[in-house]
Fold this sequence. Notes:
The complex is a heterodimer of chains A (112) and B (111). By secondary structure, chain A is an all-beta fold.
Amino acid sequence: EADIYQTPRYLVIGTGKKITLECSQTMGHDKMYWYQQDPGMELHLIHYSYGVNSTEKGDLSSESTVSRIRTEHFPLTLESARPSHTSQYLCASSDAGLYEQYFGPGTRLTVT
Amino acid sequence: GDSVTQMEGPVTLSEEAFLTINCTYTATGYPSLFWYVQYPGEGLQLLLKATKADDKGSNKGFEATYRKETTSFHLEKGSVQVSDSAVYFCALAQGGQNFVFGPGTRLSVLP
Lengths: 112, 111
């Protein structure tokens, strides 16, 4: 059973605030990902990591940043939240030798 | 680049109806193919997968066959239930590259 966690599940925050979305996995996976999911359901890859100290930007330009100091932890930070950041954010991980991605439950962010 | 196309939704069916959700792909190599399901308020879950041509993936009554000649991976279920209401994503991955997801198809099953 895949174990990947995201906190908080829901967040409502005002414009200009700094926020960090947490993602942790207990499977020892090397690869981790952040997706932004718009209301139309489509998934957009915004960041990924191949392992500790590795971070890459995804297909969709994002004002967020990520870090990977520990294998199990891949937080996403928005320095100054804006209403355009309102979305569902999904974290995922995969083993380097396998293709399946395992997803967390998501964080629904609303910026007012 | 690689891409995945799915039939547009929403798809609305009555309970016990037959389900088909079409998925076709474009890829330069020999990708692995996946179907993921997302229930309301949750993340995506792997439903089934196939790693080579003619492989059939199956799980929870759902099936999909990897058809290289038609570059397709259509999802089928013989008798849907209300609990199958969700969004379904077709996806491909190859060569250690990142996943390519389709746009998703929303399924609603009415009692």
